[in-house]
Amino acid sequence: MKIDILTLFPEMFEGVLGASIVGKANHKGLVSFRVVNFRQFSENKHGQVDDMPYGGGGGMVLKPEPIFRAVESLVESVSAMEAEESLTSRPRVILLCPQGQRYSQKLAEELAQEKHLIFICGHYEGYDERIREHLVTDEISIGDYVLTGGELPAMVVIDSVVRLQEGALGNAQSAVTDSYSTGLLEHPHYTRPAEFRGWDVPEVLLSGHHENIEKWRLKESLRRTLERRPDLLNEIEQTPEIKKMVEELKQEL
């Protein structure tokens, strides 16, 4: 996977892209990164990338020319490589903004299947609307709040996508059982010691009985979802076993 990031602050990505799972995936060759300061694509000798909004108002708006030129430069360079590799897919161009689609694990899994992603990290008051209408393929928001720029949201999305690449995690099963991957919140986890300050690990986890352990994990996953995100239960396929567990849990809670 190729990931390109357009930003005015490339230094913000140095630690994130070089550490932990993301850094290891890069080192293994599972993903490659290019962080580009789109100020270099400005047509202004001062490197100006923003201007006052037409019609007045507070704040500055990112101009279309530098963003279009930066993205087109990246697409052209990749297209040349794609021609050699006989690939035809075009990159997803992702705009990080509060108005975008709410980010989810389902969308992360979708993006993880792509060969090339381009992230546009804006600043200031907003983007020229022509960037939204004629350049980007996706607008993504990581929550109902406003940040200074798109860099932090881009890091969140990149981390969630890279960890889904085959070989990125030490245990491939980890991504399958994560919260939201199954449609439910993940069950509780325990490790050694079996007793800590009077708090014991549930006996079923020490039993070695795999079928009982899986049933316990499913029920505890349902319990946690019912307590914290009951809305998610409406989005999963409820088998007779799950329906029975949910009814039992409702009686307990």
Automatic annotation (TrEMBL):
Methyltransferase among the record's keywords?
yes
Main subcellular location: cytoplasm
Broadest EC class? Answer: transferase
**Which residues are S-adenosyl-L-methionine-binding?**
G122, I142, G143, D144, Y145, V146, L147
Stretches assigned to coiled coil: none
Ranges for domain tRNA methyltransferase TRMD/TRM10-type:
1-234
**GO CC aspect terms:** cytosol
List, alphabetically, the InterPro entries matched: Alpha/beta_knot_MTases, tRNA_m1G_MeTrfase_C_sf, tRNA_m1G_MeTrfase_TrmD, tRNA_m1G_MTases_N, tRNA_MeTrfase_TRMD/TRM10
GO biological process entries: tRNA N1-guanine methylation
Q: Which domain of life is it from?
A: Bacteria
- Substrates-to-products reaction catalysed: guanosine(37) in tRNA + S-adenosyl-L-methionine = N(1)-methylguanosine(37) in tRNA + S-adenosyl-L-homocysteine + H(+)
Alphabetized, the UniProt keywords read: Cytoplasm, Methyltransferase, S-adenosyl-L-methionine, Transferase, tRNA processing
Enzyme Commission number: 2.1.1.228
What does the record give under GO molecular function?
tRNA (guanine(37)-N1)-methyltransferase activity
Q: Does the keyword NADP apply?
A: no
Q: Its biological function? A: Specifically methylates guanosine-37 in various tRNAs.
The record describes its quaternary structure and partners as:
Homodimer.
UniProt record similarity statement: Belongs to the RNA methyltransferase TrmD family.
Q: What is this protein called?
A: tRNA (guanine-N(1)-)-methyltransferase
In the UniProt record, the gene name given for this protein reads: trmD
